[in-house]
Amino acid sequence: MVPEAYDNARKDWDTYFMDIAYMAATRSRCPRRHVGAVLVQGKKLLGTAYNGAPMGVADCSEDGCMIVEEYELQVEDGAERMIKKQRCIRTIHAEQNLLLFTDRIDREGSTVYVTDQPCWTCANMLANSGVKEIVYHRVYHKDSEKVEALMDVKGIVFRQLTPYEPPAQASRNVVS
Prior knowledge:
The protein is α/β, with parallel strands linked by helices. It has helices at residues 4-8, 13-25, 60-63, 94-100, 104-107, 120-127, 144-154; strands spanning 36-41, 44-50, 67-76, 79-88, 111-116, 133-138, 157-160. Its cofactor is Zn(2+).
């Protein structure tokens, strides 16, 4: 018989899989943001990924970030304004790597746990990937409203894991 105190110390599944996503993020060498993602079917872990340069190519820590600036029109309270966004084009996002290295059949009806709310591009890819749920921890404000609306239209469960505290081993890799 398992002592009751031990059983109560057991992590719930959301925390367990998000911890794994944060540990995957420790592999990232991106100086701007470390992101990890995991694919889960039921309670079975099917894949992990993190953000970084393509295999065999110098990464941002070696050759520097490849930052591009883009402008996006946003409408707030009926007023239009241009928002400047910066992004690194050297890095493949964790969600993209997860999709590249897992099979479509495994993704059908599965859940993706990701340390950060997906950007617009990753959200579009996930929306077409067969997943039924996306669980994230940190909000990505630049695309948040658009991504939430897309997930609603697609019928994908999209939720932020709160409260949540990343594992101590991953804390050096948590970039705001």
